Amino acid sequence: MEAPQRRRLSIIASHLNPITTTASIVTRSHCTSSSDSAEKQCNLETDCVFCKIVRGDAPALKLYEDDECLCILDNQPVSPGHCLIIPRGHFPSLVATPPSVVAAMCSKVPYISKAVMKATGSDSFNLLVNNGVDAGQVIFHTHIHIIPRRPRDCLWASESLKRQPLKLDEEALHLVNNIRQQLSFVDGFEDNKDHGTTLIGSQ
Questions:
Q1: Beta carbons of 64 and 112 less than 8 angstroms apart
Q2: pTM value?
Q3: Active site amino acids
């Protein structure tokens, strides 16, 4: 097994119960990750497998396509019907993707997910984005996963973990204030000064 495949398996195994993977026609992209220099760009003609699929230069099982994006079956599915919504333009991560493109991708989710659930006999699904290396992203062309679910399929190991309630303490307040401060510097949010109330402050 090649190093990228071993890495993908270990990442999936950290979120899922162990599953058996098979050989695939889609391999890890050599596109630059967001952790690399912003000046570096992958060679779209030779490196990005999703760009090749968009152009028709690489094989994929397409479920849907329009002028903005397409949807394909994941070639290493964690459940039957596991598919990916991919923008036609190349953006290495979700945070690097323009809001209008994200909106176009998300607008297809209800339409595609209903079809996938009916075809697979499922009534539930997970919507997932792996953004960045530590989150498990292995192809650096932003994409959204639609993963059909079945009762007791035990896909996510974290579902068996007991979740603890959020502590409304000074640490949480500090986190809230820090995130709000960062939001004030995000492009497109400079004029959004009304952040609501803080629960801790109202107690």
A1: yes
A2: 0.72
A3: 143
